[in-house]
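From: lab user (bench 3)
To: helpdesk
Subject: output format question, protein + 1,6-di-O-phosphono-beta-D-fructofuranose

Hello, I'm new to running complex predictions and I'm not sure whether the block I got back is the full result or only part of it. Here's what I submitted:
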Amino acid sequence: MANYSVLDNARKQYNPKLPECLSKDISAVGFEEVNSGAQNPESDKLKEILPKTFGGKYVKFVQKTAKSGTKPFSVGIVLSGGQAPGGHNVIAGIFDSLKKINKDSKLIGFLGGPQGILDDKIMEITKEIIDNYRNTGGFDLIGSGRTKIETDEQFEKSLQVCKSRKLDALVVIGGDDSNTNAALLAEFFAAKNENIAVIGVPKTIDGDLKTDLIEASFGFDTAAKTFSELIGNVERDSKSAKKYWHFIKLMGRSASHIALECALQTQPNCTIISEEVKAKNQSLESIINDITKIVMDRGNNKENFGVALIPEGLIEFIPEIGALIKEINKLLGDNEQHFSTLKEFEQQSEWLIKNLSQTASKVFSSLPKLIREQLLMDRDPHGNVQVSRIETEKLIVAMVDTKLKELKESGQYKGKFDSLTHFFGYEGRCAFPSNFDADYCYSLGYCATVLIALGLTGYMTSITGLSKPVSQWVPGGVPISLLMNLEERKGKMKPVIKKALVELDGVPFKTFAKNRDEWAKNTSFIYPGAIQYFGPDEVCNQPTITLTLEKGK
Ligand code: FBP
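Helpdesk reply: Thanks, we reran it on our side. This is the complete output you should expect:
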């Protein structure tokens, strides 16, 4: 039996497109400093924390006079955090561009994420190896992990490993947290007068690492399109059978970008956007009332079917539950030892109810047992409740069901409510990257090499103009410190990259809000179908609707 699918083999032959400036002699690419207009209101404080690296400008790459080659570079790469389609193409882009610059350049991958740096576990990336991973999903070539390099000892160890490997640069492929750490590592290396650059690449399917200069994080396009395909299929089944309401929770740890994009692509009957819930200070009961009304109106109209999208992060955005989670995190953090002696759920629950504030205790007690259990399940490495494990979709279905029963008894609801729940997350994180992500990631890899060759550090690769054809994309780099602000972490003000949430005054949300009542009432489903890799531009080379609406064509 062959080890590769037909598509696997066909995709390996795909040549990702590059922006014009990167498709010529890469060693001749220079930069222009551009005043992006981005002002960091916390510059003074950030300058104190990052004295060596703060103050750089956004750079836009330009072709300079042709130059034939440059010195070889030795570069290390690390994948950090959750999988996102296109990671292998970032590696392929770095590999190809390094070899174009000088065939003696060397690329090593740290294995299993940042822990691989601390343990000095590596593999050298060769042409034979990378050729097998071009345009494929997953991070399985070198693996990923969620270890955070944040203490001085970890920084020192990372420096020693990079030095012993004689690296000119380290490329960190990750989300907001990993890029924050990349900036701190760049500062640490610079403060020690070590000439090892640290470059970040924006990755996360959640789409929340976003600014004017980072128009999208890679993987968002493919993940949202994969989920939209699945949602469209469920919608069509729902419309065919006419007997089920499907409640679909969609991945996205905090922001609702994925839910919003999927709603725009598939036009379901109901979509909750966490940021709106927070802005309206909506209680769980009020959300349930809204959903129940949609189900009731459709049922009374003999349409006992529908599709509802629930963002994964919703639970934390509901004011009273968000406050409860915060209290639980603090309480369990302060009483870790004692809590670990309570083995049975009933004991844990009883202890918690006694120690929470009166309001939080009331909210906790009002939740179904399944959800209370999930709130007390194993916590993440930072000791926090694992919000992504809470089955919000089941909580919502149970509460809507109860409400509908009451409405039926009072004669207001004449329909029938039969529901099914789904969670789409891991299904989309390792899909074959769409052409958009394949091209974007490969180009980001080239950008990383150019930033290294230009002697910059503490920069994140940036490509703008993403809603235009690839040849018109504008590659460059943005100082990570420009994206940072100060937030309180463990009682101290720390520089962090702020998560970009859905903007309620942005065009994507407004477009959704303008249409949602119509989609709720009249079945208006759209079936996007599977991502297409071959064919005309309009079926296989389109960016997300979010990007198109945000940036315009
Ligand atoms: P990153 O922010 O690291 O890209 O990961 C995002 C994500 O896919 C979230 O959408 C999800 O909540 C989380 O990872 C799941 O984490 P895990 O892979 O550890 O189960």
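A quick orientation on your result: Residues 81-82, 84, 175, 204-206, 251-253, 312, 388, 429 surround 1,6-di-O-phosphono-beta-D-fructofuranose (CB under 6 Å). Let us know if anything else is unclear.
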